[in-house]
Specification:
This protein is an alpha/beta fold and 309 residues long. The chain folds into 2 domains: 7-129 and 288-307, 3-Layer(aba) Sandwich (Rossmann fold); 131-285, Rossmann fold. Helices cover 38% and strands 15% of the residues. The strands form 2 sheets. A 5-stranded parallel beta sheet has the order 7-6-5-8-9. It has a 4-stranded parallel beta sheet with strand order 2-1-3-4, sandwiched between helices. Helix 4 links the parallel strand 3 and strand 4. Helix 1 (12-29) crosses helix 5 (131-145), helix 1 packs across helix 11 and helix 2 (53-64) crosses helix 11 (288-299).
């Protein structure tokens, strides 16, 4: 069984192998070739929180590989009647070969993995981790820059609650990058995560200034201020819309700098950026398909290197 709950479940070598496999999957991800590597297998998409890209890209990845998908949402299921997560997962264990889970409660993915025999892939657990997003983020960066070594990467926005930023920062710190963490005081990266990054030897700068750091960046990773994570709406109002990038902000940027975003965006990236050479967030969203194809194959014991020449 190959669960993926946090990026710590993967070695650096396994990460690079997954990224290499994802690149081999690109023709199949685009629908140019058909690779029925997972024919006869069933994926359970277990979404207890809303999702567009993660749910649909997993479904597309599975179907492009010849597999089938069971889509689950808590609305309309027995969860509405009070069924526990444990009991729900026991049912899914008998219905599918692998399951993806997104849940509002941090720790729910690990709990689910402990409850069942099939592989569990964490698609986001509250403000915890989102490792499958991290893999597609790493793939996007690597496709543009070929390597991670000494890249200047700026993470911007909600670094307190943002599970994408938590997972990505941990992974990047293992590949010798320089991280600039841009957020208001109320949304700073949790101290324990910063301490982990420093212990990995990562060069970390914490600041609340966005514009002055743009010209030094190889990657700008914008995130949404997540209203749904705030217990107090007044606190959300204080920081909503605090960081915005428009085309005019990008004058003087590095030639090969890229702008990423896990999406959905609200107002933090102006539509004027979409047509610039820096925008990569829509390509980033597509990259969820080949990376999740590679991950599904790994979880189900399929060696892509042997199957795809």
């Amino acid at each position: 069984m190959n669960d993926l709950i946090t990026m710590d479940d993967l070695t650096n070598e396994e990460i690079i192998k997954l990224l290499d496999d994802a690149k081999k999957m690109l023709p199949a991800a685009k629908g140019d070739v058909y690779l029925p590597l997972l024919q006869g297998k069933v994926l359970a998409n277990m979404f207890f929180e809303n999702s567009t890209r993660t749910r649909m890209s997993f479904e597309t990845a599975m179907k492009r590989l010849g597999g089938r998908v069971l889509n689950f949402t808590s609305a309309g299921s027995s969860v509405a009647k009070g069924e526990t997560l444990y009991d729900t997962m026991q049912m899914i264990d008998g219905y599918s070969d692998v399951a993806v889970i997104r849940h509002p409660r941090q720790g729910a993915a690990q709990y689910s993995a402990d409850a069942v025999k099939i592989p569990i892939l964490n698609a986001g657990d509250g403000a915890g981790n989102h490792p499958t997003q991290t893999l597609l983020d790493l793939f996007t960066i690597r496709e543009e820059h070929n390597d991670f070594e000494n890249l200047n990467i700026m993470l911007v926005g909600d670094l307190r609650y943002g599970r994408t930023a938590h997972s990505l920062s941990h992974a990047l710190a293992r590949f010798n990058v320089n991280l600039t963490l841009v957020s208001p005081e109320a949304l700073k990266m949790p101290k324990e995560i910063v301490d982990d990054l420093l212990s990995l030897g990562c060069n970390v700068i914490e600041t609340d200034e966005l514009n002055e750091n743009i010209k030094h960046s190889d990657v700008i990773y914008m995130t949404r201020i997540q209203k749904e994570r705030f217990p107090d709406e007044d606190e959300y109002a204080k920081v909503s819309g605090i960081y915005k990038i428009s085309e005019s902000n990008l004058v003087g940027s590095k030639e090969n700098m890229i702008i990423m975003h896990p999406l959905p965006r609200v107002s933090e990236i102006h539509p004027s950026v979409d047509s610039t050479k820096y925008a990569r967030y829509f390509q980033q969203a597509f990259n969820g398909i080949p990376t999740r194809m590679a991950l599904l194959c790994k979880s189900l014991g399929i060696d892509i290197e042997k199957e795809v020449s």
